[in-house]
Write a sequence for this structure.
């Protein structure tokens, strides 16, 4: 590896990288939290069918991620880097497709609305890959310093938190009138967030610099064979894929079901704004704690402990079914705070896994490895989308009525508490017993990789 003589890494890069996820999450959060209720209550599509759409689309997106990641790795870096130009090129069609998802043409048939939902949602997801894969891969070339990469992970989490504040706080106030979803107001929200998203993407492209340039692998085969062998042997990657997939199932399920929890169980959609603000606020509280806690205990240790504590809070909520909305939100805030540590360090996990892949294979394939990781998250989203829609149907949710039955409301509460608790417990078990890169082993990996790189340079002289 070599470092170009360019502007030193600094706060400008951290803020620029933060803006990238800020831009991503305007639509990602809007879609993950509110698209299902838009499809059920505005388009009139059943929750089970929407769940099927989400499953098909996410599985397609997972394939698109890997395809695009491999494509990126076959491109040579230009004067503006390897990844930044793709963010610039593809962000405009991505945002346009996001706005199109929320266009509602009155008076059309049920078949039209279903077809329109499938086409626009799958188009948006495909274009999302063309921006998110280069964005996520870019972290490993902005700086080669493991400590600074951890700071990039934290600033990425900060960008998501800022988007979360705006989207989760403003969207319920915009799109609901008297607790009822209004199609034209969803479109207004999409246009507002689309403009903000483009501005953030441009800030990301302008403020970041790609510094780490991988040498050409002249002696290695560039085909997929060696890559696949390395991926199969990469135990940290496999454990990270499994834990991230499981975590995404829980996170997306929470986001999907919470809308119905507050709309139907608590009859208080305005409370969704409070939850949205708290979800981002806990990130601001947790962020300054990440670096000292990671330095003392390690990334794996911090993330797994936070996940376990979060699971405990959701189990507690499950056994408090008569709780009122404010105490529920307070306890939920503690659960969000604890699992936020996983969200803040997971991108640093990814750079460690990319390094481990290089250690095993001698190949630096940031886009491919990151896309494999993104693949797992998309599969998690697919499972969550399918489970969310089917589970709502199973507990008796009826989109055609304003008031749900008592049994349905109890089922929604169970989906919002017990199920996330079980999912988070599973994530804890995977991290604890299968992910091998503890604090000491991560430090040793950095040393071993540096020695291998130097040995390769010496051999080529």
């Amino acid at each position: 590896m070599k470092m170009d003589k360019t502007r030193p890494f600094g706060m400008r890069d951290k803020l620029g990288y933060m803006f990238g996820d800020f831009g991503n999450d305007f639509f990602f959060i809007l879609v993950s939290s509110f698209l299902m209720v838009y499809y059920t209550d505005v388009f009139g599509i059943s929750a089970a069918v929407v769940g099927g759409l989400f499953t098909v689309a996410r599985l397609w997106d997972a394939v698109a991620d890997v395809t695009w990641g491999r494509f990126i790795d076959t491109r040579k870096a230009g004067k503006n880097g390897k990844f930044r130009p793709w963010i610039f090129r593809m962000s405009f069609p991505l945002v346009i497709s996001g706005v199109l998802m929320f266009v509602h043409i009155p008076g059309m048939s049920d078949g039209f609305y279903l077809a329109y939902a499938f086409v626009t949602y799958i188009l948006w997801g495909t274009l999302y890959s063309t921006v998110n894969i280069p964005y996520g891969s870019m972290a490993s070339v902005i700086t080669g310093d493991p400590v600074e990469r951890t700071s990039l992970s934290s600033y990425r989490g900060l960008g998501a938190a800022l988007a979360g504040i705006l989207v989760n706080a403003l969207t319920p106030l915009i799109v609901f009138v008297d607790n009822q979803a209004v199609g034209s107001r969803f479109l207004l929200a999409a246009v507002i967030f689309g403009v903000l998203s483009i501005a953030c993407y441009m800030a990301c492209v302008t403020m970041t610099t790609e510094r780490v340039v991988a040498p050409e692998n002249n002696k290695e085969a560039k085909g997929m064979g060696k890559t696949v062998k390395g991926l199969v042997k990469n135990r940290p990657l496999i454990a990270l894929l499994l834990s991230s997939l499981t975590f995404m199932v829980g996170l997306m399920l929470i986001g999907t079901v919470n809308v119905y929890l507050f709309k139907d169980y608590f009859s208080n959609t305005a409370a969704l704004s409070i939850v949205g603000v708290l979800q981002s606020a806990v990130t601001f509280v947790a962020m300054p704690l990440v670096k000292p806690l990671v330095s003392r205990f390690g990334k794996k240790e911090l993330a797994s402990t936070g996940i376990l504590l979060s699971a405990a809070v959701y189990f507690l909520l499950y056994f408090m079914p008569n709780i009122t909305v404010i105490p529920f939100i307070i306890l939920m805030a503690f659960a969000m705070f604890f699992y936020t540590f996983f969200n803040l360090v997971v991108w640093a996990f990814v750079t460690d896994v990319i390094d481990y892949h290089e250690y095993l294979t001698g190949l630096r394939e940031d886009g491919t490895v990151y896309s494999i990781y993104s693949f797992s998250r998309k599969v998690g989203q697919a499972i969550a989308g399918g489970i969310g829609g089917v589970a709502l149907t199973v507990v008796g949710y009826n989109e055609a009525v304003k008031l749900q039955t008592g049994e349905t409301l109890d089922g929604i509460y169970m989906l919002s508490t017990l199920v996330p608790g079980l999912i988070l417990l599973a994530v804890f078990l995977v991290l604890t017993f299968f992910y091998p890169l503890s604090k000491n082993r991560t430090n040793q990996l950095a040393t071993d990789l540096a020695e291998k790189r130097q040995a390769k340079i010496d051999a080529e002289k």
Q: What stands out?
A: The first helix runs from residue 11 to 41. The chain has 14 helices and four strands. The radius of gyration is 22 Å.
